[in-house]
Amino acid sequence: MPDFLHLTLDYLTTAVILVDETLHVIYMNPAAENLFEASGKNLLNNPLQMVFTDTGQLANAMQRALKTNASCIEHDLMLLTHAHNKLHLRGTVTPLRIERPSLLLEFHPMDRPLKLAREEQMLDQTQASRLLLRNLAHEIKNPLGGIRGAAQLLEQELDKPALREYTQVIVQEADRLRALMEKLLTPQGSVRHSALNIHEVLERVRSVVLAEMPEGLTIKRDYDLSLPELTGDKEQLIQVMLNIVRNAAQAMQGHGRIILRTRIARQVTLVKQRHRLAIMVQIIDNGPGISPEMKDKIFYPLVSGRADGHGLGLTLAQDFVSQHHGTIEFDSEPGHTCFTVMLPLRATT
User: Fold this and answer.
1) Dihedral over Cα of 17, 55, 338, 257: its sign
2) C-alpha span between 204 and 220 (Å, rounded)
3) Contact at 8 Å (CB) between 151 and 174?
């Protein structure tokens, strides 16, 4: 492919795939790699079916384009990526003759306006949730001081060392909860970010959850070890991933499979800002899925699908991801639930 065409397609925000007359991939631009969650380098000279499945509609369009030597448009194209993400697209197939006969495939997500509207709604919801959490933290913080003080006074009255161990547990747990409340009450801008490895975060979460549920739960790794370091708050990101993984494990009652997947995403728009690169973390489980009535309110505070749930885990996760200028989304059906966290990579000074 000529260098000028390669450079031009690289900078397009439209997903573009170039295939030869045998429908093998010649080129994928970064936008297509991001949309289909695939590597153009790895897919070079491979059949188009290696990019996505369910290519019946697209195959018909390509045949018509080759037969008529004219562009063909599919306005309602449904494709399924190999990561099990369903895409609703408008596709254009254009015959080209560069060095050899080929087809230029362009893909435009049909749900982009809906995605922007959801992001806008999510921002408003995050602000409301943050206000509620701050109010809750303020109300909880004062009684914790009383509980801690009472435990210390009780300890002075106890003669048996074994009994003092119980008061120490009360004091330590009160301190831990107080630290969490302080973090919730900390202004958003005062959070200190530093360089971190997202895989260290995920490994910490993996070890914690496997320790909690040692039998029947499998947590597999699917890491892209070439990912660069991320700038963020390590403790917040551990809490984000822990809340999602723990929810998945509890939904499966400790028996099932969870996959932790990391990839690089290119040319993505997060919270109305365009980023050249972002880290994508996917947490996938094979549990029962999220019920339809819960899908629209799963990030609301104090809303839980479990009788013993407090409904704050995903609310906190959403808030912490928002503080990193990222997004958190999910797709769920029985047997397959995928939470996707996108975190932008920013140039460090």
Assistant:
1) negative
2) 14
3) yes
**Could you name the CATH architecture of 3-110?**
2-Layer Sandwich (3.30)
Q: Which amino acid would we find at residue 228?
A: P
CB contact at 8 A, 294 and 280: no
Question: What is the value of pTM for the model shown?
Answer: 0.56
Determine the Cα–Cα distance for residues 296 and 122; give it in Å rounded to an integer: 11
CB 112 within 8 A of CB 131: no
Q: Which CATH number fits domain 192-349: 3.30.565.10, 3.90.1150.10, 3.30.450.40, 3.40.50.720?
A: 3.30.565.10
Look at residue 210 and give its three-state secondary structure. Answer: helix
Q: What is the pLDDT of residues 189-228, one digit of tens each?
A: 456 788 999 999 999 999 989 988 878 899 999 999 999 9
What is the rounded CA–CA span in Å between residue 136 and residue 143? Answer: 12
Task: Report CA Rg, the chain.
Answer: 24
Q: Give percent of the chain above pLDDT 70.
A: 79
Whether the per-residue pLDDT at 272 is higher than 80: the answer is: no
Domain boundaries, the chain: 3-110, 113-186, 192-349
